[in-house]
Amino acid sequence: MINKFLNLSAKFADKQFSIFNNKFSVNYFLTHPLFSGSAVMIMGSNFANFIAYMYHLIVGRLLGPASYGELAAVISVLGLIFTSLNFIGLVVVKFASSANERELKGIYSWFSSIALKAGIGLSIAVLILTPFFSNFLHINKEMFFLLVPILSFSVLTFVYRSFLQGLMRFKEVVISSNADFVARLILGVIFIYAGLSAFGAMLGILLSSVIAFLILRHYLRDYRILKISKKFSNSKQVFSYAIPIFFATVATNSMFSTDVVLVKHFFNSHDAGIYASISTLGKIIFFGAGPVGAVMFPMISKRHAKGQNYSKIFILSLMLTLAIGLGVLFIYLIFPRLSISLLFGEKFIEGAPLLIWMGIFMVLFTLGSLILSYFLSIEKTKVTLAIVVAALMQGIGIWLFHDTLLTVINVSIASSSFFLVSVLIYFGYATKKKRN
């Protein structure tokens, strides 16, 4: 009986089906590097997110409201700086993944030199602006002084991690990220218990940045910042590619934050808090499926550079992203109250009827983002106009139509639908053009 079941399972796993003239099987899907790489990134990212959540939970309780407020404000400044630099990571991944072995050392050296200069520049800027930040946020200057070395190390680790992602060394990416968060938690707790309060927590962030830097340097020990960087002759290509990526990154971040900011402006604090809770839950879909795109990007970029077929990788990525998005959406449809109460408590439960609509917005946006990432990996940057227009539509739409929280979400659904339909139309056009 068991053998018969195993034989049937094997036949089912080997049975082929066709999607867009590409043949697949269950075995092909499960054994594909995209699946294993995505699994590593998803598990690693979720563990890092869990540690980050525990960090704020534990450190917040140890510090108390006043000191934790100081720490959170400084961390927010740090977060804003790195959000503005996210586009650089995508550029590094693109050029590292499409390079051959002879070009890698030159690319690594060139980007490392740029990162070193950027880190020093940002550190000097923060040092100059420290009195302003300190007065504006009512925080001791010593807290901001620690941002100077943190930025110097963090910009380099950011580039190193992106370079490893471009090399498709996803295990090393995950290990370095989680080591950073775990060290931040442990060291922060130790220094707070030692009586250093919020300054001690910041000191923990600094040392965890150093630890992450040393781990990444170990993984990239075969590479050095040398004069070989002069051999990298595609610097103009980097900047021409980086400009549309920058606008796409800004527009993507806008789609995440504009609705929350405008709801805070137009609604009372209670309603804004309810909206913020369901927005956070909605983002689980994007960040849960995000690692699939992170794995897909360098794989397709590498194949595109070599002139190899990459359509199966894209289709598998689309299927996996859709499965994750619909899976979370199903949970929100069946268990909206439970989903909210588990993460935010009963005080936020009135947002339950809105959760499914927020989930729909995020599924549409996540699918559109994956397709956009696909085009960027094959150097088709004109499509970034779609996300820029969608972000403008969302902002203007919410400004004009905001009578209820559901209306705000519907505006976001409309803008993300426009985004998804636009990139799908472009995909159809590009596919037809390629065949001709």
Automatic annotation (TrEMBL):
Q: For this UniProt entry, which segments traverse the membrane?
A: 34-59, 71-95, 107-132, 144-163, 183-216, 237-256, 276-301, 313-335, 355-376, 383-402, 408-429
Q: Which UniProt keywords apply?
A: Cell membrane, Membrane, Transmembrane, Transmembrane helix
Q: What is its main location?
A: membrane
Q: Could you tell me the membrane topology recorded for this protein? A: Multi-pass membrane protein
- Domain of life of the organism in this record? Bacteria
Location(s) in or outside the cell: Cell membrane
Instruction: Spell out the Pfam families in the cross-references.
Output: Polysacc_synt
InterPro entries referenced in this protein's UniProt entry, alphabetically = Poly_Biosynth_Transport, Polysacc_synth
Any one cellular-component term (Gene Ontology): plasma membrane
Protein name (record): Polysaccharide biosynthesis protein C-terminal domain-containing protein
- Say which species the protein is native to: Candidatus Woesebacteria bacterium RIFCSPHIGHO2_01_FULL_38_9
